Amino acid sequence: MTEVDRTGEGPDDRAAGVAEDDAQQGDEQRGDEQPGEAGQSPAPARGRRRIPVLVAVAALALVLDLVSKLVVVAELENHAPIEVLGSWLQLNVIRNAGAAFGVGEALTIVLTVIAATVVVVIARLARKLYSTPWAIALGLLLGGACGNLTDRIFRAPGVFQGAVVDFIAPKHFAVFNLADSAIVCGGVLIVLLSFRGLDPDGTVHRD
């Protein structure tokens, strides 16, 4: 662009000319920008991945589960049940070869493989995890799965066949542990998030 000689112009004329040049340059810069698709708003910034939240929730769930099992096995196994809320809630240690709440006792190895698969799937999802609620939900699932998987691997009768320690015994309900509770809570939260249209990557569907 050729500059205009404004030597003979007054201060007001020179100020007006500078403003005109600035406006013209702004128009040229806007013309160089690539327009977006019609009706499409720019995607919101995702921020950081929520892997630390996932790991923290999973670690907390796992530690609470392992510590509670160590305590009840050392103090309550082979003893009479302890009443917490009368007969409605007791602490009663049992060894469960099945899944959560005593389901599938003949499928111990299969359930071990499923638990290990859940851990791998959650680890892969973590690469695209930008939603804090999803990080909490998956952390609960991961911590619970690792808690029961630890029992499957290290407890009797053998590797990948170990019986899970259950000890929370409500009246007229299956005996379970804190890992089972974490898995159920994580699953319920995932269902709620899905109904609300929130994806793990932070995308929200409004339809």
Overall description:
The chain is mostly helical. The chain is 51% helix and 8% strand. The protein is built from five helices and three strands. A three-stranded antiparallel β-sheet has the order 1-2-3. The protein is globular, with a radius of gyration of 30 Å. Mean pLDDT is 81; it is low at 29-44.
Order of SSEs: HHEEHHEH
The shape, in one word, is globular
Tell me the Rg in angstroms: 30 Å
Number of helices: 5
* Structural category: mainly alpha
Strand order of the largest sheet: 1-2-3
Low-confidence stretches are 29-44
Distance between the termini: 50 Å
Arithmetic mean pLDDT: 81
Summarize the structure.
This protein has 207 residues and is mainly α. Helix content is 51%, strand content 8%. Strands 1-2-3 form a three-stranded antiparallel sheet.
What structural keywords apply?
single chain, 207 residues, mainly alpha, three-stranded antiparallel beta sheet, 5 helices, globular
Describe the secondary-structure layout.
Blueprint: H1 11-32, H2 51-75, E1 82-83, E2 89-96, H3 108-125, H4 132-154, E3 164-170, H5 178-195
Antiparallel strand pairs: 1-2, 2-3
